[in-house]
Design goal:
The protein is of the alpha+beta class. The chain has 2 domains: 158 residues, no CATH class; 177 residues, Heat Shock Protein 90, CATH 3.30.565.10. The protein contains 11 helices and 7 strands. The strands form 2 sheets. The chain has a 5-stranded mixed sheet with strand order 2-4-5-7-6, with helices on one face. Helix 3 runs parallel beside helix 6 and helix 8 packs across helix 9.
């Protein structure tokens, strides 16, 4: 039983892994050549190597490639994968007609008169040949359906793999964030600040507890969803920075928004590693420090910018306790090629610019 499951995983891995991309195409081309070579065996028990048979072989090979490659890499991803069934069917019918036309041209040009298809066609008219060959269109249609089914199955495998990897990466990110930031030490400091202010400034103590409650509520509940509204994530960041501000009198921050950000949805906890990193590395015992955040939504894109001051004695930087490689990995799983991440540094300011295509 374990052997069968292992074999199934090996086959699925071979079908889906990019490193076997060339292997799969070589096998496909070998199969196409074997499939087309059947024309040399048109007469049972006898091989025919005539010029006409050779061109029929070329025609069958071209038709096989036409049913596979344009279908797999143009029609399926452009129409079928996006649910545009009618457009896909129309395109598939056009592809069948093109295949029949290719074969009809080859027959009209290279097949000897009074043999094969042409013996029942009064002339070498390509349209007449295509009409006679209509039953072959069914075979071509079945090939197109088989390719579409295979590509749909392959996409399903890729989506499942990405979903599993994303789930694991998201869980790891959340757990590591809990350990590195919302930890007992952090909670102790916040509660201790609230306790000190209880007598001197009860309103401020109450505010700390409210913000801490909101922050933890988001962390434990809202952040477990696949998508959250950007406004909720910004509120989370504001609470985080407000709590940090109660600990440091010389700390300032700003959060700005541009464009229509009200309906934007993103993956949760996407920005906190950069903000936590900015806070951690901008503490300056000799002067003021700052963190500036900005969110710009325009033309289906969201641009997040995080700037922080650099102290005179800089601490070695490690993003969010997670590492830049892990953050990029999560972005790869969430947005694939639909994002850019840039980092710049001057003598006084460190900046991160993350652009997402929504």
């Amino acid at each position: 039983m374990m052997t069968n499951q292992s074999n199934e995983k090996t086959i699925l891995h071979y079908l889906n892994d990019k490193k076997y991309h060339i292997h799969r195409h070589v096998l496909l081309q070998l199969f196409a050549l074997i499939y087309a070579s059947d024309v040399f065996c048109a007469v049972p028990g006898k091989l025919s190597f005539s010029i006409g048979a050779f061109w029929a072989f070329i025609g069958m090979y071209l038709i096989f490639c036409l049913t596979v490659y344009p279908n797999a890499y143009i029609l399926v991803p452009r129409y079928l994968a996006k649910g545009k069934i009618v457009k896909y069917i129309i395109s598939a019918v056009i592809l069948i007609i093109i295949c029949l036309f290719v074969m009809a041209v080859i027959l009209a040009l290279f097949e000897k008169p009074n043999t094969g298809v042409l013996k029942i066609v009064p002339s070498r008219n390509i349209l007449q040949i295509m009409m006679i060959m209509l039953p072959s269109g069914l075979t071509i249609g079945l090939q197109i359906i088989a390719v579409a089914a295979f590509m749909s199955f392959k996409k399903w495998l890729e989506d499942n793999k990405r979903a599993d990897e994303l789930k694991a990466a998201t869980l790891t990110t959340e757990l590591m964030f809990l350990k590195s930031q919302i930890n007992p030490h952090f909670l102790f400091n916040m509660l201790n600040n609230a306790n000190i202010l209880t007598e001197d400034d009860p309103d401020q103590a109450s505010l700390i507890l409210v913000k801490l409650d909101d922050l933890l509520h988001y962390q434990m509940n809202d952040s477990t969803r696949d998508k959250v509204y950007l406004s909720a994530d910004i509120s989370f960041l504001r609470d985080f920075l407000d709590l940090e501000k109660t600990r440091r009198d010389d700390f300032k921050y700003t959060i700005s928004k541009e464009g229509n950000t009200s309906n934007v949805q993103i993956a949760p906890l996407l920005f906190i590693p950069f903000v936590e990193n900015a806070v951690k590395h901008n503490f300056d015992s000799r002067g003021d420090s700052f963190v500036h955040l900005s969110f710009t939504a325009r033309d289906g894109r969201l641009v997040f910018t995080c700037e922080n001051s650099i102290p005179q004695e800089e601490i070695p930087r490690k993003v969010g306790g997670l590492g830049l490689a892990n953050i990029r990995r999560r972005l790869d799983l969430l947005y694939k090629d639909n994002y850019t991440l840039e980092q710049t540094k001057t003598d006084t300011v460190y900046s991160v610019i993350l652009e997402l295509m929504l």
